[in-house]
Each structure stands twice: as structure tokens, then as C-alpha cells.
Backbone:
């Protein structure tokens, strides 16, 4: 059974800092890995999806990497802004049905 | 275009009552997923549909939970004889196909509180 872990559970940084969020998974036979953002009381917004054959994906100030052999993914946020404050979730897809197994999330606070 | 919508946004019910939660996926998306987000368990998979069929019901926590999808579109998640531990946010997602390369798009969720 796939298990996904995110460290740290919470992070507080000053505005402008570059930061890295970590995600690890136990079963490397993944189809893809997705990073989501969740604002309080809201649903999930997809940020990046990395296919199993890819090593990284970029969107604006966000860069996600994937290392299947070590069971790790990282989300890099450049020049953080207060608007980046949210919970970031990673999720791994392990089967053709694309059912996602989620980590517990990292709550990010970017202080002005 | 319109995203995934869910109704109601909030539901308060008494223990033992039945509830129905509705999900309208993005038009043209063939795959639909239900997840539950609770304080103690995080986000967990419940069931997914490919078209109107549900190949994987492994995540349903008990036989009080059931779901259906009609016309390859709207889905309803039904919880019978609700218990307090059913209190959670129920999230629906859809994707263009069930293959592993597709992004899942999530609705805003239904917040269920069982008193």
C-alpha cells in the first residue's frame, strides 16, 4: 500500500525567501505525482503534474522535481509572496485508475 | 469553462439520517473521483467512476456508503444512517480520462457535520 509523507508539516518564512517542500512515497511504481494547493475552506487547486517518465515540471515561480528511485518529490517556490500562504499537498497515482494517495500536507505561511 | 461543482456546500444532519451529496464534473470528463478529508485521516480516496461504472470501490469505509453516476455526468454519494465519524469534507474530482497522465480537477467540497 502506497504511503505518502510530507515534511515539514508547517513552515513559516519571510516574504521573498526561496523554499522547498518535501514529499516522499513508499511505492516507486507511480504513474504520476501531483502537487496541489488548498486554501482554508476551499477545494484543491492543481499546481503541477509530473509523469513517471519526467524529472521535473515548472510553472512560473514553481518547480517540482521527481526522483522515483529514491521515492521523493520536491516543490520549489521561488521568491515567496504572502499570497503563497496555503496548504500544499502532494499526491501519488499508482494505478491505471489514477486514484490518488495524498500526503498530510505542508501548511505554509509567508509573512510580509 | 465551468469547473467541478458540488452541492450542498454545507450539510448539517442528525445521527442516523441519510444524506446525499452531489457532484457535477467538468463537461466531457469521463473519470470522476470521490475523496474524503477529515481532521484525523487527511485526504482519502473513496471511489472512482469511469463513465457510469465504478471499477474501484475499495475506499468506501462501510456498506453505509454508496455512490452512483448517471449519464456519464452527475454523481451522487449517499451515506445511510450517518454517524458522527462521517463528519468530514467530501471532495469530488474529475479528469478527462482515467489514465495515469491526467490531471484531476477538484470541486470546492461538501462540508458534512453529523450531530
Residues:
Amino acid at each position: 500500500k502506497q504511503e505518502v509523507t510530507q515534511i515539514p508539516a508547517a513552515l513559516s518564512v519571510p516574504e521573498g525567501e526561496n523554499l522547498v517542500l518535501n514529499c516522499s512515497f513508499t511505492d516507486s511504481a507511480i504513474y504520476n505525482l501531483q502537487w496541489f494547493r488548498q486554501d482554508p475552506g476551499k477545494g484543491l487547486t492543481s499546481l503541477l503534474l509530473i509523469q513517471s517518465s519526467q524529472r521535473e515540471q515548472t510553472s512560473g515561480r514553481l518547480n517540482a522535481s521527481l526522483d522515483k528511485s529514491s521515492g521523493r518529490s520536491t516543490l520549489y517556490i521561488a521568491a515567496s509572496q504572502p499570497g503563497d500562504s496555503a496548504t500544499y499537498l502532494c499526491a501519488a497515482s499508482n494505478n491505471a485508475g489514477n486514484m490518488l494517495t495524498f500526503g498530510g500536507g505542508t501548511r505554509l505561511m509567508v509573512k510580509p | 469553462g465551468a469547473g467541478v461543482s458540488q452541492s450542498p456546500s454545507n450539510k448539517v444532519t442528525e445521527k442516523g439520517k441519510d444524506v446525499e451529496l452531489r457532484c457535477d464534473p467538468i463537461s466531457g470528463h469521463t473519470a470522476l473521483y470521490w475523496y474524503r478529508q477529515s481532521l484525523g485521516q487527511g485526504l482519502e480516496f473513496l471511489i472512482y467512476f469511469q463513465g457510469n461504472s465504478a471499477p474501484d470501490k475499495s475506499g468506501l469505509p462501510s456498506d453505509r456508503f454508496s455512490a452512483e453516476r448517471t449519464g456519464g455526468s452527475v454523481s451522487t454519494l449517499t451515506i445511510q444512517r450517518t454517524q458522527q465519524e462521517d463528519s468530514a469534507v467530501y471532495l469530488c474530482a474529475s479528469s478527462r480520462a482515467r489514465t495515469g497522465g491526467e490531471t484531476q480537477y477538484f470541486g470546492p467540497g461538501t462540508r458534512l457535520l453529523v450531530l
Q: What stands out?
A: The mean pLDDT of chain B is 91. The radius of gyration of chain B is 13 Å. Chain B touches chain A at residues 4, 31, 33, 35, 42-45, 48, 50, 55-56, 59, 91, 93, 95, 98-109 (CB under 8 Å). The CA atoms of residues 4 and 26 of chain B lie 5 Å apart.
